[in-house]
Amino acid sequence: MFDLANSHxxxxxxxxxxVDDALLNDLLMTGLRSSSSGNMQTWSVIVTRDEANKRKLYxxxxxxxxxxxxxxVLTFCxxxxxxxxxxxxxxxxxxxxxxxxxxxxxxxxxxxAQTICLAAESVGLGICYMGxxxxxxDALIKFLALPQGVxxxxxxxxxxxxxxxxxxxxxxxxLIVHQERYRQLSDxxxxxxxxxxxxxxxxxxxxxxxxxxxxxxxGITRVTDYYTSNFxxxxxxxxxxxxxxxxxxxxxxxxL
Length: 256
Description:
NADH Oxidase; four-stranded antiparallel beta sheet; globular
């Protein structure tokens, strides 16, 4: 288990081999057995295999080719709708239609997703999370016909790897782990702790001709400048998506 967890790599290129239905069901069962707040299991997952539907998801996920290549796309959702329907048919007092209900379901969904990822990698499958789920939450709700009380929180592509990428760099553990209380780092500690990551990331970006050209044309010389540029995660993107998420949470009855 330690070897499996420590050898994780995101896979973005897949063979045309299908994922057997029985295997996929076994993987989904591991998600079902995951930890869940109050054992309420306020999450759902949409399985997409159909090529036309994957084409639409490809468009919604900013045209990432791995959506088309992977035989399976899984969209994980916070789901208090099912819980509220159970409460309704039993004539019990309603609840969960609020921010806490959404956050509880979102955590449940991500826990299940990660369990499924580990199970998938243990049998030779590859996965990649798609953060673009947040960016397209409103459109995904419409396309996947999600009722009020259901909200997409993360997505996975799943299939047999057609690549063998090296392990990606990670921050030093002492930047992530705090003992007893949070400890804010000094400027020197921040620079030293991120130095290795900056060097490796900068080399990786410059090894890709299209990215190297963008960096040069924009006069970007640091990894942090790239991360906050219009090519990556600009402030404008964050503000636009944040406004959309709040509005969509309100529409889905999850913002109170």
